[in-house]
Amino acid sequence: MRTTPHTPTTRRLLSAALALGLSAALAACSSDEPETREEKPAATQTPAAEPPAAPKVGACYSLTYEEAIAATSESAPVACTKGHTTETVAVGSIDAVVDGHLLAVDSDRVRAQVATACPQALKSYVGGSVEQLRLSMIRPTWYTPTLEDSDAGAAWYRCDAVVLAGTSTLADLKAGLKGVLGTSKGRKQYAMCGTAAPDAKNFERVLCSAKHSWRAIDVVVFEEGRYPGEKKVRAAGRTKCEDAAADVAEDPLTFEWGYEWPTKEQWDMGQAFGRCWAPD
């Protein structure tokens, strides 16, 4: 996740001026008493704020969908044995130094680094194949420190796994996701289904444990690069999806099938594949 890209934040330049000095007050004096001076103590420097500790792999959080797709998260972890919606699959260090210059935590380079690392980390954490992950409702999401924490020295990024229960709803998780797609039970539990055919107006992706009428059964992979155009990506899935639907149909001579090809917007976000669908 990150289906939804993080919303870029505006970099604020934080500056602090440290000053250390003495102030003095002259006491009243008379002609027959010596002049006295009372010195005030020196001002003390406020210690710099300590950055929060880096997150830990395997930690769980109870986030809403809106919180899960935000660029940062300051929520405290919860017990994984209780209801939660996200699970940390990886924690890494931000590479923000280029030619000796420190980049902002919300710079394009940093965001690109994390957006590449976290989907890869998710695949390793949940197990199974890339195709099985794409046919599931498990998605990656990621977070970087806030601007204030970054200025205090925080330089980590956090990759989480979420399970979509609908278009903008997260599933409530009762168990961990580590290695879950490496088992037939896990693949079935988190499989992707649809409320209607993929070209229907009321189509919505849901977990197959929810009410549904179609199931995602295969993927059509394209070579990464420039978007081929809707005509080509649409035609590319016809044979593969038709064959895949025939394989799962009760009657291989009479059956329905569907194909959901990537739009240019999805392609630009990294989705260079389509999905085949069949009634379920």
From TrEMBL:
<dbReference type="Pfam" id="PF13845">
    <property type="entry name" value="Septum_form"/>
</dbReference>
<feature type="domain" description="Septum formation-related">
    <location>
        <begin position="53"/>
        <end position="144"/>
    </location>
</feature>
<feature type="region of interest" description="Disordered">
    <location>
        <begin position="29"/>
        <end position="53"/>
    </location>
</feature>
<feature type="domain" description="Septum formation-related">
    <location>
        <begin position="145"/>
        <end position="276"/>
    </location>
</feature>
<keyword id="KW-0732">Signal</keyword>
<dbReference type="InterPro" id="IPR026004">
    <property type="entry name" value="Septum_form"/>
</dbReference>
<feature type="signal peptide">
    <location>
        <begin position="1"/>
        <end position="27"/>
    </location>
</feature>
<protein>
    <recommendedName>
        <fullName>Septum formation-related domain-containing protein</fullName>
    </recommendedName>
</protein>
